[in-house]
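Reopening this ticket.

The earlier resolution said the output was attached, but the attachment link was broken on my side. Pasting everything inline this time so it's all in one place.
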Amino acid sequence: MDREQAAQRIKQLSVELEHHNHLYYVEAKPVITDQDFDFLMKELEALEKEFPDFASPNSPARRVGGDLTKEFPAVAHRWPMLSLSNCYNREEVQEFVQRIERAHGPTTFTMELKYDGVAISLNYRNGELVRGVTRGDGEKGEDITANIRTIRTIPLRLRGKPPLELEARGEILMGIREFEKLNEQRANDGEERFANPRNTTAGTLKLQDPTTVAKRGLQIFIYDLYTDELPFRSHFDNIRQCGEWGFRTPDPKKRFIARAAGIEAILEFLSHWEQARHDLPFAMDGVVIKVDDLGIREELGLRAKSPRWAIAY
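Inline output:
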């Protein structure tokens, strides 16, 4: 195989493997066997070893790990990663809704699960993942791109025609089953058990060896999108668009996300998840309520550390 043929085959295999990765990990609808997937992966690994100058940083082969990361440099966020104001009872939720509707009339809200994980900023250029950055202090975080590439629910290349540059934000978490398996293995090895999935996720993302990160089964849900020209003026619709580009987004059919007007619908969503939260395969620690219309958000503005258009319950 000459160099031109190798470059073409590497590109073809990369696209095919990412497609099957998305079907398996994001949509849970695989169309090939694990054995067939491994066969394609081994072919890609062999070609990239023979022709290393054609190997992309976003090659599917990088998902299994790579060189040790000696440091995680600080990176400034283009858009600050703000905190959320908390409320602890339904009266405060009603006050939040009433305050907004007094100023803007009947308003549509998006309700989402508040995942108990670690916030991350994913930066893409020309449809390719270029950087994954922790929240940090909200103004700047740490570049953990090498570890981010190992998480199979994070696309290395986007589908369709995304903006030239975009930033998707999400919550990285460890499923309850994966956490229990990891602790069982640690107990068998005579090591101390980890305390909880969230702390384990945070620690895993800071490991120097991406190969270890790849083995821990981390996953992500996208909850926000930033770009110079957003496709829609609706937060709900922008999250749905992220799904079209290949991101793992909350499923409306499972009520992980919903859009509604009026306090009654919001309170019903809260009641549902107060009962159903223990049936989830991952940990959640509440619900986030956001104004859906981006124009109203702009009018409401921000506090020093949190937006006026969202609360966490």
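Reporter confirms the inline version is readable. DSSP finds ten helices and eleven strands in the chain. The chain has a mean pLDDT of 95.
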